[in-house]
Specification:
By secondary structure, the chain is an alpha/beta fold. 38% of the residues lie in helices and 26% in strands.
């Protein structure tokens, strides 16, 4: 039985996967609602692909629970997989078939036949912009159109959940824009999980983002929360007579001081709070003037998603280096 419209489309609890002595994924928990696009990020080797494969029923977890549209994927894999559409990083295309022949073949694999099959193919082709190329061989299509064919096979059976693994890899800027528009459209009718290394893509098409590192979810937020995190808590400081870093670290509210390559240039991260940037900037300016540091520049610096991703993804390495130096 499918879940009610108000309940999560995807529920993942305690998901783990072990390869021998290596724990590749460790007790991952998350949910996805209908009509949401979730960006799933992680550095190479973080456990992202392993998690995606378990979510699609391609790989069995060592522990944990996955429910798709209210159906337990482990107890009822065939029923649950009917609600999943999957586009792997390398689309499973047969280059010697035409688009129509390939989608017909995929439809039969999903148990579609007759009028239902024909209408499903027509709908998928329309959604993916493939109406004009139905008779062309897949091998003769551009990379962008081949990606569209891959997405068409993933949504052919109208699944509740669509999982896309690096859908824009290898595409030119125009093709990337077209695929992003297509993903946004899918998000209106399906729940979508998007795995990508292209960070601006997440902010362009996703409603929420989560980052996995060393098999664990380390960051999970809405795009609105991400925008708030990007908007402040970092200040660029340029001084003519810079003090030792320790003096800057003693300024109230300072969380971290980073010495930039240019002499006298720093980036200061401070404790974020309501109106915190204004108060902190005032304190910083007053201190610089009082100490005669020769204040040349004091300006807010907006964090990019790349900054946040690198900061989170390398936190353990930075901590290890600090401990080693101590």
């Amino acid at each position: 039985m499918s879940s009610s419209p108000s309940s999560p489309l995807v529920q993942v609890r305690g998901l783990s996967r072990r390869y021998g002595e290596t724990l590749a994924v460790r007790e991952v928990d998350f949910q996805l609602q209908r009509g949401e696009v979730l960006g799933f990020l992680g550095p190479n080797g973080a456990g992202k692909s392993t998690t995606m494969q378990m979510l699609c029923g391609v790989l069995a977890p060592s522990a944990g629970e996955i429910r798709i549209d209210g159906i337990d994927l482990l107890d009822h894999p065939k029923r649950a997989k009917r609600s999943i559409g999957y586009l792997p990083e390398n689309p499973p295309l047969y280059r010697e078939l035409s688009v129509d022949e390939y989608l017909h073949y995929c439809g039969r694999l999903h148990g579609l036949a007759g009028t239902e099959l024909r209408s499903s193919i027509d709908r998928a082709k329309s959604q993916c912009g493939l109406v004009e190329v139905g008779r062309r061989l897949i091998g003769n299509l551009s990379k962008g159109f081949q990606q569209r064919v891959g997405i068409a096979q993933a949504i052919l059976h109208q699944p509740a959940l669509v999982v896309l693994d690096e859908p824009t890899v290898g595409l030119d800027p125009i093709q990337i824009r077209e695929i992003r528009e297509l993903i946004r459209g899918l998000g209106e009718e399906h729940g979508v999980i998007l795995s990508t290394h292209i960070l601006p893509e997440v902010q362009t098409v996703c409603d929420r983002v989560q980052i996995i590192r060393k098999g664990e979810i380390i960051y999970h937020a809405s795009i609105e929360e991400l925008d708030q995190r990007q908007s402040g808590s970092r200040i660029r400081l340029v001084l003519r007579h810079p003090p030792e870093i320790e003096a800057l670290q003693r300024i109230p509210g300072t969380r971290e001081v980073i010495a930039l390559p240019q002499p006298g240039h720093f980036e200061l991260r401070f404790e974020a709070e309501d109106a915190g940037e204004t108060r902190y900037a005032e304190t910083l300016a007053e201190t610089a003037v009082h100490k005669d540091w020769g204040l040349l520049e004091l300006s807010p610096r907006q964090s990019s998603l790349e900054d946040i991703f690198i900061e989170l993804a390398t936190a353990d390495e930075a901590l290890t280096a600090t401990e080693a130096a101590a």
